[in-house]
Amino acid sequence: MNLFAQTRDLVLAALDELVEERVLPEGLDFANVAVEPPRDAAHGDMATNAAMVLAKLAKMKPRDIAEALAPKLTAASQIESAEVAGPGFLNLRLAHGSWTKIVEAVLTDSRFGRSDLGQGAKVNVEYVSANPTGPLHVGHTRGAVFGDALASLLDYAGYDVTREYYISDGGAQVDVLARSVYLRYLEAHGQEVAFEDGTYPGDYLIAVGAALKDKVGDAYLDKGEQYWLSEIRDFATEAMMDLIRHDLKLLGVQMDTFFSEKSLYGTGLIESAIKSLDIKGLIYNGVLEPPKGKKPEDWEPREQTLFKSTEHGDDVDRPIKKSDGAWTYFAPDIAYHYDKVQRDYDMLIDVFGADHGGYVKRMKAAVSALSDGKTPLDIKLTQLVKLLQNGEPLKMSKRAGTFVTAADVVDMVGRDAIRFTMLTRKNDAPLDFDVDVVRQTNNDNPVFYVQYAHARVQSVIAKAQAEGMDMSDAALAQAARLDHDADVAVAKKLAEWPRLVEIAAKTNEPHKIAFYLSELTAKFNTRYSMGRDSDDMKFLQIGNTSESQAKIALIRAVAVVLSAGLGILGVSAPDEMR
RNA sequence: GCUCCCUUAGCUCAACUGGAUAGAGCAGUCGACUUCUAAUCGACAGGCUGAGGGUUCGAGUCCUUCAGGGAGCGCCA
Known about the structure:
By secondary structure, this protein is of the alpha/beta class. Helix content is 49%, strand content 12%. The chain has helices at residues 3-20, 50-58, 62-74, 96-108, 138-156, 172-188, 206-216, 225-251, 269-279, 330-342, 360-370, 406-413, 415-423, 435-439, 446-466, 473-479, 485-506, 511-533, 545-569, and strands spanning 35-36, 46-48, 79-85, 89-94, 122-126, 160-167, 257-260, 283-287, 303-307, 318-319, 347-353, 377-382, 385-389, 392-393, 431-434. Helix 1 crosses helix 3, helix 4 runs antiparallel to helix 16 (473-479) and helix 10 packs across helix 11. The longest helix has 27 residues, at 225-251. The radius of gyration is 29 Å and the shape is globular. It starts with a helix and ends in a 9-residue tail after the last helix. The structure holds one RNA strand.
């Protein structure tokens, strides 16, 4: 039940009538006609821009259209008044009963808020995709949490979502990993080793080296790389993926599919992906211009196999083979996305870190070329996280092996606080994450604010149940009643929920959910606090079941929506906080 | 040099994708706890939306120039 959509239908019907009566000309495009909540509540419950949108097309003054439209709308029983305002807005007030119906809908319709916006379209959301060379660090956390919430949001909005992790286990970095594990393996055998540049010195590999020793004994001692590299690579990446899966679990991040880069090699998949581009005339051998300005010392022109990505919006063509004939990292990525296109998704979303910003255009070009422009790819970049403690930066240098891991941060502040904090921000803005602030349990920290509201509602309900009152959603829906302006204000906010879900899903912006939850909580707290001044305003009326049910219906509806919203964000909705 | 992102109240951020007088929290000042959980609520104060130009009924939002910050720029991923 989406009141805004319903009201928009009324507006469109009224416009059709005006066309029939020849007040408006035929053939107008109503696509831009919107019904929105007004910025200022004093303007009414909803506003439509119909008159202004149509004025130019109809060659009429906006206010004249609005004047003609108003009586048509007030004829509908749901609309109490329609008032022309400003340059041609039509401010609508809805009948009081509309708001009570919203409360009933929340309590009786388990799908309230869910949307059929997605129409079951298949969406693939790829996120995290951290290299399998160590545990997740704070930077990964943001992409993980963002991607996870985005996937949940799209699912809630009616898409058929696949959550996918791309394991980069085919490149040089896993060779480095294997060599690093070999050193730890030698160490486990009691040898002195030195970690040179280009190896991973992190402590997390000690256990892997020891496990390798348990598995193969001394088989790899005093042997050249050719005897063990491939085996240790497999062993080590599997161990790293175990670490990462564990970290994801700590963060509450779900995955449906893990796709291995390695599976693309030796199977003809890369070759067939490139061939499909070649057939389109997008593959050629050539020499790239050197980058302007900053010319590398050792730059010299070399012929490479190139992808004509400029034909699909990129700035320069991109190499898919190195000058020695090996694939570049781009080639398996093309093959991977080719595979996704083949899997028949209606939409692809990649969540990348900011350091992959330069990669966006070529990836979009590749998908556009591979799917003949049929499969849209949206790439969401998550900007850097600056981790602070007490205002001072916490270092996270992977090279030094002292980076702050995702697990560290979960230990410090907890999963709920990380997730909510990181989602209370647009993905494309940098984020200062101060662990001291996030640990505070006050208004500075919105996660507790929202969770506390949920706990308060459940506490009232628990007390009512202890009085023997029927607090089932069905009973509450039956009794629901809005007595006070503050009640209506809360219900109006609830009415915005389905609309907000659609907007957030359309724009792939889960942070809008987090802000909405804070706003709903504020409205609820305002109403709740009235019970302090006057016993009449308390929700629980001891000894009066029907009155209690009538009042509690509203706040139970709040709890239902809070719980749904927190669920999308992957944050718990506790029944108690003491 | 080029590409992408960012710049909004003292601080951290919103602004429903072009709508009406740009809003919250924190910090500041004042007020409210023998609580249906004060992890809360109420009030005051705080702005040339980095700067200039353009597009139109209407711009924080779109285009453009510039300034400042960030990420990246063939044979790393």
